Amino acid sequence: MLDSGKAMAEEEVIEPTSTPSHHSRRWLFSEMLIFATLSLIASFVLSWDAILIAKDPDVVLSCSINPILDCVKVGSTWQASVFGFPNAFLGLISEPVVMTIAVASLAGTKFPRWFMFTANVVYLLGVIFAYWLLYQSTFVIGALCPWCLLITVSTTFVFVSMTHWNILENNLFLPPRVHLKALAFARGGWLTISLVAWLTAMALVEIIKWGPRLFI
C-alpha cells in the first residue's frame, strides 16, 4: 500500500500540467501575428517578382541591391521553384493560416491539441525548407534575396512562438518528464535566448562568408 501510494505521488509530481497566463497568450500570439504578416508580405512581393522574372529574365528589381543581394539571380534558379511553382506561393497559403490561428487565439479560442501539434510539425517543415533555401543561396547560388531573408527570420520567430505556446499548453504529446524539462526550458527564458543565439550565428555566417561585399 505504501509503495502504491508513493508511486501515485510520483505520478502526480510529473504530471505535465501548465496554465499559461493571459500575458503569455497575448505576447506569443501577437508575435506570431506580426511575423506571419511580414512573411506574407514578403511572399506576395516574391510571387509578383517571380512573374516579372518569368516575363523578362533581365528585369531589374528594387531588391537587386548589389552582386550579393540580388533577388533576380536567386529567383532565376531552379531552387526558387522546387515544386514546379514559385516557392513564395507556399507562403501565400501557409501564412494566412498562421495569422488566423493567432487572431483566433488572441480572441480566446483554444484549438484542439492535435490541431496545434499538426500546425507545429507542418511549420517545422517550412522552417527546414527556408533554411535549406538559405544554404542554397549562400553556398550554391552565390547570392542572397533580401525578401527571402525576411521570410527566413520571420518563420523562425513564428516557429519559436508557436512551439513556446505548445509547450506551455502541453500540445506536443511529450512524455511527462520530457514535458516538464521543456516547460522549465521555456519558462526560464531559454527559448528566447536560443532564438537570439541562433539568429546571431546565422548573421555571423553570412557576414563571414561575404565580408564587405555584402554591404557594397
Structure description:
The protein is globular, with a radius of gyration of 21 Å. The protein has one domain (21-214): de novo design (two linked rop proteins), CATH 1.20.1440. Residues 1-17 have low confidence and may be disordered. Helix 2 runs antiparallel to helix 6 (146-168). The protein has eight helices and no strands. By secondary structure, the chain is mainly alpha-helical.
Number of strands: 0
Count of structural domains: 1
What summary fits the major beta sheet? none
* CATH C-level class: Mainly Alpha
Poorly predicted sequence stretches spanning 5 or more consecutive residues: 1-17
Give the integer mean of the pLDDT values: 90
Number of helices: 8
Q: Indicate the CATH topology.
A: de novo design (two linked rop proteins)
Order of helices and strands: HHHHHHHH
Beta strand %: under 5%
**N-to-C CA distance:** 75 Å
Shape from CA axes?
Answer: globular
